Amino acid sequence: MTSNSSLEIKGLAYAYPDGNQALFGVNLNIKRGERVALLGPNGAGKTTLVMHLNGILKAGLGSVAVGGLEVDTDSKETLQEIRQRVGIVFQDPDDQLFMPTVREDVAFGPINMGITGSDLEDRVMEALVLVGMTDYADRPPHHLSFGQRRRVAVATVLAMKPEILVLDEPSSNLDPASRRELADILRSLDVTLLMVTHDLPYALELCQRSVILSQGTIVADGNTFDILCNAALMAENRLELPVGFEPRK
Amino acid sequence: MIIDSQRITLDTKSEHVHGHGVGDHLYVHKHSIVHDLPAQVKVVAAIGFIFIVVLTPVHAVWAFALYLTMMFIVVGLAKLHFPLVLRRMLIEIPFVIFAVLMPFFGSAPRIEVLGISLSEAGLWAAFGILAKGTIGVITSVTLAATTRARDLLQGLEAIRVPAVLIQIATFMLRYSAVVTNDLARMKVARESRGFSATGIKHWKVLAHSAGALFIRSYERGERVHLAMLARGYNGTIIDLYKPIVVRRDWLIALVLPVLAIAIMMIAWVTL
Fold this sequence. Notes:
The complex is a heterodimer. Chain A is α/β, with parallel strands linked by helices. Chain A has helices at 46-53, 76-85, 93-96, 102-112, 117-130, 146-158, 176-188, 200-206, 224-229, 231-236; strands at residues 5-15, 21-31, 35-39, 61-66, 69-70, 86-89, 164-168, 192-196, 209-214, 217-223. Chain A has a domain at 5-97 and 164-236: P-loop containing nucleotide triphosphate hydrolases (Rossmann fold). Chain A has a six-stranded mixed sheet with strand order 6-7-8-3-9-10, with helices on both faces. In chain A, helix 7 links the parallel strand 7 and strand 8 (192-196). In chain A, helix 4 (102-112) crosses helix 5 (117-130) and helix 4 runs parallel beside helix 6. Chain A is globular and about 55 Å long. Chain B folds into two domains: 33-157 and 243-270, no CATH class; 162-230, no CATH class. In chain B, strand 1 and strand 2 (116-119) form a beta hairpin. The longest helix of chain B is centred in the middle third of the chain and has 30 residues, at 163-192. The radius of gyration of chain B is 25 Å and the shape is extended. The termini of chain B are far apart. Chain A binds chain B through residues 11, 13-15, 18-21, 24-27, 51, 54, 56, 60-62, 76, 80, 83-84, 86-88, 90, 92, 94-100, 108-109, 112-113, 142, 156-157, 160, 216-223, 226-227, 230, 233, and chain B through 1-10, 12-15, 17, 182, 185-186, 188-196, 205, 208-209, 211-213, 215-216.
């Protein structure tokens, strides 16, 4: 069965083993091809939510489905399929990159999916082309600049041809040029995108739609411009625009 | 645009945890006379006790029985669960295996036990390792379970363990959680790309992860050191909070080694 939803979350609640509850019933539906920003203050549960998208955490209640396939943390086959469909780019590229060369690191995901030979080579180069890092294929990741490492981290996930690309704070620690280059790359990709960010101008630039996660539930969902212009809503959820920034359509 | 969603609250258990710091997974939070003693007093008592146990002649079996009984009493006073202490004592197993082998390879005279020829000297040596090892382990386990890692370091400092060793151990304690978190995030990132370590064919990936973690930790170490230099670090760290020790603490703690000395002396004299 095909579904026109890339991501469908229903009534998702989760408490950590120490008893601390982080999610209190999250509902979210993202259509194929949409670019959505997930906004919210520190401690709202954004990272916890992301960890549910590919079954790293097991839902306490509720469900998550990716491209119509429900995440079932108890089924190894489903989990493998889900992890191919959901590509997560973590905030710190050093968490993600660990192989001796960029090429091997980008190949890591596809290899886990059982891809070999010339198919693998094609996937790796394709992904590196998309992020403009082909010249660095044989370099060790820890010799690259931070912005380059983040682009390689995006490539490592793109090589798995995900249904939905999830980025945790994609613009953090980037200089303005790297930040813009990454925006160009993200805009050029033909993929559903969920972007967790505190960088509200970045959200406005890249995502037509935004949702606010606050205290473990979605409290607002709508046009990014409208949300950023709603001063009361913003203040209530500890969201602030940079000084001097005026949202424009 | 604004959503008023229903809040779903999960049933969760909350635990009695307070004041647990980094690296304190061995510490068992209780309120007891043993927990309340200052760390250096406990360290001196424990090390003294272990020394005396080691110096006791092997053939005085009764002395070891008494030592063990004393430690059981200490464990009881510390309100520790015996199953927990026993489980932690499993760390002794490699020594047990070594001890079990000794009677087979020891020198003459040999005696027959159940039709197997064993060395008498080897048997006594094995008993010595087992008895002294077990008492040493139960003492260390009790010390670790009743003393916070941070206090232990302060205690070691108070009894003049070289500052460099204390600093190394302090940093290990402080950054073990950071490195463990790095490791955990790297594991999540690996799994997110469809990896699960199931066998020997995955060791290469794990080895690369370990290498990457080493580079990260090494670089972090350099950054931390630079940040310390930037705040005027010159090789010494002065501890602001010195634990206060009163004579009563020493009197309580030294009961253990003093009793042990008496037992040891009787053991030597009566042998």
